[in-house]
Each structure stands twice: as structure tokens, then as C-alpha cells.
Amino acid sequence: MTDHIITPKIENRPVAFTQAEIGWTPWLEPLAEDDLTEAHLTGLVEASRAKSPYFRLLVRDPQVLEARTKTDKDIFYNTRTGLPRAERELAATAASRSNGCIFCASVHSRFASHHSKRGDDVQKLLDEGVDADLGERWNAIVAASVALTATPPTFGDDHIERLSAAGLDELEIADVIHGAAFFNWANRLMLSLGEPTPAVQ
Amino acid sequence: MTTSTPDIIDLLAGIKPGSSLDRIRTQRPETREQAQKSYRALFEPENFGDVSHAERQAIASFVAGLHRHPDIFEFYVSPLEEGEANRWVVEVLKAEIGAAQAVGPYGRYPAGALSVEDAPGPIYQVSDAGREALGAKLAAALEHAHLLVFHLRDASPRALQALIAAGWTTNGIVTLSQLVAFVAFQIRVIAGLGLLAASARRAAA
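The joint structure predicted for all components is written out below.
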């Protein structure tokens, strides 16, 4: 097998943050669906992910992908206690907006809008950036997520105090930390292994 | 088997059994378990595949150094210090970390409405002496890690081509990307939960 890069030809490539359903195309060869073994399918966690070129690329290291996927799902979907889903997605969107991941921000801003019913505020974050005024509780979550996203991180006691003053308890603050931290994992993969493609009309 | 590997995030964030943060992590058992499994899949895999153990420790040490997190740097670099052969690599890594410092995220957006947000910053290259000591493959990995840590929006197919030219396979690049991205996640969880634990201890005192 020869290893080579893919340089996709993309017309109307997405050049702004959007909540539209844009796509993503890889710069390295994903495994072919027909070549996936049991070990790969275990790594994908969900059989439907075999349709995604992103996951078929990452499944070249199946054990890491499996653990990463399960970490992701628990951080965002385990909402019986702790921070509401909408605000975990807000943390993900803020990290993605700060790092500049147009694709990640599109997916998670849609989720944030859906779960919060505050699509205009979410759009303001995308349009104006991480300093947009979204009300104090959301501002505190965005500021904490952005501080965690900086390298080196600038997250400090002042961010914890601000989240606490905005009404978040310790578990909810830990959920903000995990949501933002996880997108510092996801953004680095999405941005470096491929690029966004326009929404299908 | 190394089933006794301690939970790395608890260890490095100073989360003690029975503490308030321990109870918080207990409410997210799957996150705790899978973050640890991610660590083990990257640093204690059954099969190291196209990325050697020493390469993995060296790259993670470099990433921790770029985040200016001495404890995590020490954690990742210590296995290299045990072997005579890698002792020199550790000195080279420290010198390269010193030369590679920056503040992120920066970089360029695709040309368009976001271009006004383009932020300049350094493009790091391993020193000649470093390249000689580390070899072309590891040197290329450090340059890519710097891109992923500080200015990920400058990523390009060309950057992946540089890895392939230095001897990286497609499988190896996937593992490398996961490794850098995972450590970036892990450092933020450790930094965040570490501060939260300290704040909880102050509140209880």
C-alpha cells in the first residue's frame, strides 16, 4: 500500500461559521467499507459510522477511536445529572469557534440551538465571535471554554468563580471543563485530517 | 498487563479518593474509564504499530512542554529518562520545547469573511542539531505537533505530505494525530479539574 495525500477540489468551500449541514472530506485515504474487520467495527462503536469517511479514517487505530467515541458520548449525552445538554454543546461550539473549526462549530452550534431554542444567540456567537454578549450565564460558559482552549490554557480561579456566580455547581462546572476540553481533541482531528465541504442543496 | 496503571487524570490533577472531585468524577464513570482507556490505547497498546513507544513518549512530552505544564511533561518524559539511549533525546526535547514556545490559537482562515480574524504566529521548525539527534521521522512529528497545538487552522494536505516524506504511514499519521489531540484534551481536563479541586478544598476549609 502506498501512502499518499488527497487534495480535494472543492467549489464554494465553506469560509464562514454556519449552522448549516455542511460536509467534510478527508486528506488521507479512509479504509474501504468492504475492508472493515470485526476489530474495526468494534472501534467504530456504531455500525452506522462505517458510512462516514472521517470515522473510516480514524478507525485505522481502532482502539483509540473506540475509547475516544465512548468518552465523547458520555461527556455530551449523559445528562441525567449535571449541565443541560444545550450548555455542553455551547462549550463545544465556543471551543470550536475559538480554534477555528468551521465544521465542528457547524454541528455543535446546531445541537446547541436545538436543545436551547436560542438559535439567534448561538448564531451571534458564530457571527461575532467569542466576545458576543449572550447573557451572563452563557457568557461565563463561553469565557471558561475559550480560556481552556488557549495554549497554554488561561483558565483560572476567576472562571470558576464566575461560573459559580452564574449558578453552576461543581458537577456542572466539571461538565463545562470536559465539553471544552473534548473539543480540543475533536477540533485537532477535524482541522488537520480533512476539510469542510458545502451543504448539499 | 498493566491493569494497575493508576488513573492518570486523578494522579496529575491531584484528585484524592473520597474528595469532592473524586465524587464528581464518580458521577461520570464512563468518562473517567474511557479517558483512561484512551491513554492506555495510545501509550500501552498491545501493538505499537507504526509509532514506537519512545516516539509516543517523546511527542507527548513535547506537547506537554508546549502547554508549559511541567508535571505532565515530567510524567511523559520519565520513561525516556530510564533508558540510556534516550537520555540525550530528553535534552534535545527540552531545547526544542524552549525554542517552540508560542501562544495559541492563531493561524489563517480560508480566504473570505473570516480573513479579518487571521492571526499571525510562529511556524516552528526543529533545529538542525535537533533533527540530527531525533531523526527525520520524529523531527517531522514535532513540527506537526506544534501545528496541531498552536495553529491548527493552518493545517493542510501539504503538512501531511511532509509527514509522509519523513517516513510516516497513513496509519501512523492517524495515531500521531490522535496522540497530540488526546494529550491536548487530557492537559485541559487536568488543568481544569485541578483548579476546581483546589477551589473545593478552599471552600471546605
